[in-house]
Amino acid sequence: MTEDSARHREERSEEATQGPPHGPGLLRSARNDATSTSVAELAAVGLLDASRAETLRAVEARYSVAVTPEIAALIDRADPADPIARQFLPDLRELETRPEELADPIGDDAFSPTEGLVHRYPDRVLLKLLSVCPVYCRFCFRRETVGLGKGASLSETALDEAFAYIAERPQIFEVILTGGDPLALSARRLRAVAERLAAIPHVAVLRLHTRAPTAAPRLVTADRLEALTASGKALYMVLHVNHARELSAPARQAVARIQRAGISTLAQTVLLAGVNDDAATLEQLMRALLAAQIKPYYLHHPDLAPGTGHFRLSLERGRELHAELSRRISGVGLPSYVLDIPGGFGKVPLQPSHLERDEDGGWRVRDRAGRWRAYPAKDRDD
Ligand code: SF4
Questions:
Q1: Domain ranges of the chain
Q2: pLDDT at residue 252 above 70?
Q3: CATH superfamily, domain at 109-375
Q4: Interatomic CA distance for residues 183 and 31, integer angstroms
Q5: Within the chain, what is the greatest distance between any pair of CA atoms?
Q6: In this structure, are residues 280 and 313 in contact, taking their beta carbons and an 8 Å threshold?
Q7: Could you tell me the pTM of the whole model?
Q8: Which atom of ligand 1 has the smallest separation from the CA of 209?
């Protein structure tokens, strides 16, 4: 790509993430012209059977759809149970909302002092910079707030309020940039954020959560990385990876670019029925991450997001799988198996010290303050 065309693309990306209104076409240009953002487009590229596309229109009307060409290339179209397809292609079961499912499953709203900011733990904050992603995962825990037509990026006013809040609180050691996917922002927008944070002396660490290195590796550009590292803060990137096949050659090259920029790489994985809920698949993933110099950090039990019941396995089964994984792999390759307690009570490790059966055969989970909280989802490995 020439410098001019690269700049042109960057400007279009910029345009797509600056402020409303944002049609699907503009949002698409922020990711990739070849990204499929409707069931009709998925059918046109052969990822969905045309006869199914019509019935899936109700799903796309409810939850955003986006599949990049990089992800499309990983899908085995001959396999009806393909673990990559299952993560990204819409499914009619998404229209079934179970009683225990919540629009805000991890309780961000209750801990949001300013728009886009979540301050749940004393020493760190989440800064949700935008509501756009290069792909839309069908199990997304923020699916009610992330997606097409959900407001795109934070306004300058909201950013000013967030930075003022952080600057006034010296206990805030770490700022976690999230969304949506921060790497869908332009280098200029990332630089502006990094520079504002660089000016707050008590913020020592920036962490960025992203799906882009595997789902849209072309977003991992030298100018975005340079913009982030210009902050001068310690920088960590936590990559969302659920299956070893996501670490394709382009993805591994993107990871290498991140590492060459001096950014530490970790991974978070969601434990998902039909995607990675067997010990061999998890072992393969953790080994692939380690081989790419990515430290497995969290294995998340899936959250109670609406329409995601078909992805959830029981806590019992999750604990069995994690125990089996711990027997197969070294400590450095073993992520911590965690649950975000519904209602905003924080993230806890799923160990006996934090988990007990209740009288009805369900579960209670102990939060960080030592209080037991009901976990409303029953075990259903059916
Ligand atoms: S990349 Fe993250 S925020 Fe975006 S749809 Fe997937 S799970 Fe949700």
A1: 3-95, 109-375
A2: yes
A3: Aldolase class I (3.20.20.70)
A4: 10
A5: 66
A6: no
A7: 0.91
A8: 2
